[in-house]
């Protein structure tokens, strides 16, 4: 029997340093997130980052936490529930990190007689630190515990025509009534090194401003290209003028060079250039989370207004938007009926 496994990133169990620390430990000890040799990752993560970050992160989580729990988890649960209502197949939800494990979710499907699973990483773009780590983890868990289950992965869907339409409609809806003079597409950042590592040609991705515009097989795994493509596709769908739109990358950790331009620097640059009414869109995330609700909706507004901006709006992610749910249901049902996957 066929079934669906939806996987998002995960959150700590509560917004306290006690619960944030083990969550960050699992997250940052993932070699696809901090991609150093393990001995060095141990020093960087356990010897340095985890000494101070859990307290700082817990404070940030406290600002956005809902009565029902972490926004990312609650929204993912609502989404999964709605998808369930639009398919005959069993649907389970797991998280890459934290206590809602992929193993438990696969067990849930297995207990319902499922032996053929469509794995859906809830990320529109490919990155080794998001999409790839979910796929690798699910394959490891399957091989170790459920050898009779067949796993098929839904590919990164950022340029799927229906998805671009659903995303654009949701953005248009969020922009309604807001008199903006600029729209910033802020994507989660990654270290530049990750782009080079994921380049199958080993020479295409130079991160020089041009490589992402030249056609290449490298784009199947080039997160930077996929983000810029998303901006262009939405811009075309909504007929947005070039001069009113730009892209940037947020949430960097100290140390390595990350993808540029950095979102926080862009807030300052745009305000100084006289763009005073800013809308911010965060299309690397399908559900709102710490990085959108705290870093963009709260901190971002403060940074932009301190730099001279006057009005500011964060446009919500797709979350459990009905059109998004129906599109996901269409994809999983097409796979069930004809083994067809979206492109
Ligand atoms: C080296 C560090 C990190 C990489 C690379 C990275 C890539 C990456 N992350 C997401 C999506 C999310 N990240 C979230 C939180 C978060 N991310 C990092 C670090 C890296 N992410 C940290 C340390 C944290 C935790 C919070 C903090 O201390 O700042 C979240 C939110 C989770 C939540 O509970 O709300 C999401 C979602 C993507 C898509 C990505 C690569 C493209
Ligand atoms: Fe992250
Ligand atoms: Fe590229």
From TrEMBL:
It is an enzyme of class 4 (lyase). One of its GO terms (molecular function) is ferrochelatase activity. GO terms for biological process: heme biosynthetic process. Keywords: Cytoplasm, Heme biosynthesis, Iron, Lyase, Metal-binding, Porphyrin biosynthesis. It is found in: Cytoplasm. InterPro entries: Ferrochelatase (IPR001015), Ferrochelatase_C (IPR033644), Ferrochelatase_N (IPR033659). Pathway: Porphyrin-containing compound metabolism; protoheme biosynthesis; protoheme from protoporphyrin-IX: step 1/1. GO terms for cellular component: cytoplasm. It catalyses: heme b + 2 H(+) = protoporphyrin IX + Fe(2+); Fe-coproporphyrin III + 2 H(+) = coproporphyrin III + Fe(2+). It holds the Pfam family Ferrochelatase. Fe(2+) binds at residues 188, 291. It comes from the Bacteria. Its EC number is 4.98.1.1. NCBIfam families: hemH. Belongs to the ferrochelatase family. HAMAP family: Ferrochelatase (MF_00323). Catalyzes the ferrous insertion into protoporphyrin IX. This is Ferrochelatase. It comes from Flagellimonas flava.
């Amino acid at each position: 029997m066929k079934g669906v496994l939806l996987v998002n990133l995960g959150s700590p169990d509560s917004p306290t340093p006690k619960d944030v620390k083990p969550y960050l430990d699992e997250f940052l000890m993932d070699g696809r997130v901090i991609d150093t040799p393990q001995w060095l990752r141990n020093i960087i993560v356990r010897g340095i980052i985890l000494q101070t970050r859990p307290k700082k992160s817990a404070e940030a989580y406290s600002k956005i936490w809902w009565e029902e729990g972490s926004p990312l988890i609650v929204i993912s649960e609502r989404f999964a529930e709605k998808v369930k209502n639009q398919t005959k197949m069993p649907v389970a939800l797991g998280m890459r990190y934290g206590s809602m494990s992929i193993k438990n979710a696969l067990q849930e499907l297995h207990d319902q007689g499922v032996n053929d699973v469509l794995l859906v990483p809830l990320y529109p773009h490919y990155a080794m630190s998001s999409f790839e780590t979910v796929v690798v983890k699910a394959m490891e868990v399957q091989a170790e515990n459920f050898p009779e289950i067949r796993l098929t992965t839904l590919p990164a869907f950022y340029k799927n025509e229906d998805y671009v339409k659903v995303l654009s409609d949701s953005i248009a809806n969020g922009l309604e009534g807001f008199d903006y003079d600029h729209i910033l597409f802020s994507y989660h950042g990654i270290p530049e090194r990750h782009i080079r590592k994921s380049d199958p040609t080993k020479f295409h991705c130079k991160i020089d401003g041009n490589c992402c515009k030249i056609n290449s097989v490298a784009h199947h795994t080039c997160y930077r290209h996929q983000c810029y493509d998303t901006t262009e596709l939405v811009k075309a769908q909504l007929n947005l003028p070039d001069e009113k739109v730009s892209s940037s990358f947020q949430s960097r950790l100290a140390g390595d060079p990350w993808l540029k331009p950095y979102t926080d620097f862009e807030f300052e640059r745009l305000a100084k250039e006289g763009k005073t009414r800013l809308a911010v869109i965060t299309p690397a995330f399908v559900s709102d989370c710490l990085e959108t609700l705290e870093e963009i909706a709260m901190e971002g507004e403060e940074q932009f207004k301190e730099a001279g901006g006057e009005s500011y709006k964060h446009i919500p992610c797709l979350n459990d938007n009905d059109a998004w749910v129906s599109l996901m249901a269409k994809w999983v049902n097409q796979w069930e009926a004809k083994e067809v996957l979206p492109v």
